[in-house]
Amino acid sequence: MARIGIFGGSFNPIHVGHIALARQLLGLARLDEILFVVSPLNPFKKQATDLMDDNYRLALVEMALQEEPKMKASDVEFHLPKPSYMWRTLEHLSLSRPDDKFVLIIGADNWLAFNRWAHYEEILNHYELAVYPRPGYPVDTTSLPANVHVYSTMLFPENSTEIRRRLAAGVSIHGLVPLKIEAELYKNKTQ
Question: What EC numbers are recorded for this enzyme (predicted)?
């Protein structure tokens, strides 16, 4: 039975912090693989107006993970009803891969708002959660359910919103995204 981390997100765009975090969680959470599940419509970001095309974001994630054998891009949510609710994604993956154990990877900000997620009790009842720290979102580890684990990963300052802002303003994004992604984003900006 493989332990598969499910790292959902808009990845608008993917950046070096996403990949570095995943590298750490592979070891800390004893994961065999991490699926980067590209979300076409996050229910908490329905009003987003600057979301890059779904297939373009997926292609960027695939490109960024080419040298990461234990990380893969997934378009599973492209084929499920919108908005993209994680309980549906986990249920679909569990049915299609019954021999694997899925571990949901979320930030501390999402953990603190987890009771607002659709079918959050179902997720808690059937899946392990790997929570990583986010600045300004302290998690009380003394009262967590047994299947929720907080991992002390490094904090990464990169965020996709800032990368998009810098790109639009013509400011360098060097070092914030993998080099292949940087070249692709600059190329796409000039087209």
Answer: 2.7.7.18
Long-range contacts of 45-50 (CB under 8 A, 24+ apart): 45/10, 46/83, 48/10, 48/12, 50/12, 50/164
Inter-residue contact 19 to 65 (CB < 8 Å): yes
For residue 50, the model assigns a pLDDT of 83
For 104-152, what is each residue's pLDDT tens digit?
A: 999 999 999 999 999 999 999 999 999 999 999 999 999 999 999 999 9
Report whether CATH 3.20.20.140 matches the domain 3-157: no
Per-domain boundaries in the chain = 3-157
Measured distance CA(29)–CA(5) in Å, rounded: 9
Phi/psi class of residue 152: alpha, beta or left (left: φ > 0; alpha: ψ in -120 to 50)?
A: beta
Question: pTM (2 decimals)?
Answer: 0.95
Distance CA 129, CA 172 (A): 35
pLDDT of residue 145: 97
The yes-or-no verdict on residue 17 having pLDDT over 70 is yes
CA distance 94 to 35: 13
Nearest Cα to Cα of residue 90 among 99, 101, 106: 101
